Amino acid sequence: MKLSTIIFTTWIFLTLASCTDSRFSDQQIEIKALDIVEDLDSIKIKTFYEWGFGHRGKADIFTKHSANADSGFYSYSCFYLKDSGRIKLSVGRFENFKKDFPCDLFIDTSKYYKVDFIKINDTTVHISAINNQGHNEIISEKIILNKLFITNDPFKKFKSLHDFKDSLGILGNFYRPDIGNFIQFYLSSQHILTYLPDNLNLNPKYSNVWLEEFRTGKAIRKNWNLRKHENILDNG
Predict the structure, then answer these.
(1) Which pLDDT tens digit goes with each residue over 157-191?
(2) How far is CA 108 from CA 105, 112, 117, 134, in A?
(3) pTM of this prediction?
(4) For the chain, how many structural domains are there in total?
(5) Domain enclosing residue 35, as ranges
(6) Which residues make beta-bridge pairs with 194?
């Protein structure tokens, strides 16, 4: 299997890879990478084992990594978009989302594949759902936020993830436990910063390919590899 095929098996990074960014020199990217390394301690790095980050247009995309290999490598996804004073969350795999953010809301997931929550002010949420024919149907036009999500507010959670991503200045990250326990951070459309833990564990099926890929870069700190693809990362 080609390395590019392995990397871009997830839809998040197909989108990410289409971005181009020629604003930064290699030296500037290395300075940026070192800043990220200094900021990501052992506690913060755990966030990226739990969450995938990316973007599409003006929206951030967050995927919750799955602890159950049988359900695939992600549990659910959420688009986070702040626009004109409103915040919109578009959620896929709603039943898994509800496990993290319990709410008294029934959605027939055999009929609807995505649920949209729009926070129209500090207290009120509009809810709609996209059915299998692609039509948006209103579920509730006005519902009180803290009565909908009593124990865990997803708007606060995804704002926190959004702010964390922006503070690092990354485009997105990549983690696939079925491939290995390393984490990749996309700093531009060509530059990749990789965290290689002390207990690095690679799937033997792909280990030679990945080890060769890492050798094309350089160690900038213990456990950290920075490399540049000569060509713009494409869709594989």
Answers:
(1) 999 999 999 999 999 999 999 999 999 999 999 99
(2) 10, 6, 16, 15
(3) 0.85
(4) 1
(5) 3-228
(6) 184, 225
